[in-house]
Structure prediction request, 299 residues.
Amino acid sequence: MDRTRRPAPRHARIPESPEQVPAGSDSRPSPRHRAHEAAEPTSAIESAPQARAPEPTGDAEVAEPTEGTQEAAAPEESSLTKAALLYKRFGKVATARNALALLAALVVAWTWVTGGMDSVLAKAADRTPVVDAGQSVTATPFKVEVTQMFWSDDAAPLEDSSLRDTLYLVAKARIDTTAHMPLPTVQLSDSMTVRILGQDLAPQSPFFSNIATKDGSFGGPTVYRAVDHGAVKNFQPAMPQDYWLVWSLPVSTPRATELRIEYHALTYRESSLDGSWIWADRRPVALQDVQVAADGRVE
Prediction:
């Protein structure tokens, strides 16, 4: 038996598909061809890669909202966040101080529209009650009763009138305080204002009582004790006394026979500027017309 190994033909190859099998040959696919057909996918579904299932991590996963869910929740989110959005925009502006400033601006604007501050004061004066001469008036923190008033060219022994030409208005009054603390005598000018009715007095010299006034009144008086003519710097609480009140005025001041006394009450409160306690919020409480003698002397 010939054991010589015969080489295989070079051009011989295994057909890859049934179409490549020549006619008349054995139509049965070879084992290699059958294995090749089994390896190839039979459809597009089989050829698609299979999705890998997510591995559990132990923590619950929250499903992200779909587009439809977001659109449905949008109106509710907008209504809930509207107040927060407004506060974020205007919270730094709408402070208590700015609110007070706005209120003050509105008051000023309304005052201007209604005729100005002079009109407001005039209306307040029209509603202020008028009391009879000689009647005691309470104008917090003072209680004042004027018993006498006259003009004089000489305020001796209270003041030296030889230094300058001066006209004096002198009044005798009983004064008590409603406060539980000493009050400086200059505080009296805030609660008691004397003027010539219908005439404003212009200040002419720093030596006169009305130098610091801007309302046409006589300004603040110098206060002396009636019992010994001693100058007074403070009114003591719960110690009612008789005092001489002296206004130093220019000699050109008309010697009116009747003067108007305006009484104003004050409120003791904390200052909004520096936190100190002050007498403020001046408001009219009474008007009093007093007859004035053309001449008189201090006794």
Observations:
- The domain at 131-291 is CATH 2.60.40 (Immunoglobulin-like).
- The helical segments are 31-39, 44-47, 67-90, 96-113, 116-127, 188-191.
- The chain has a mean pLDDT of 76.
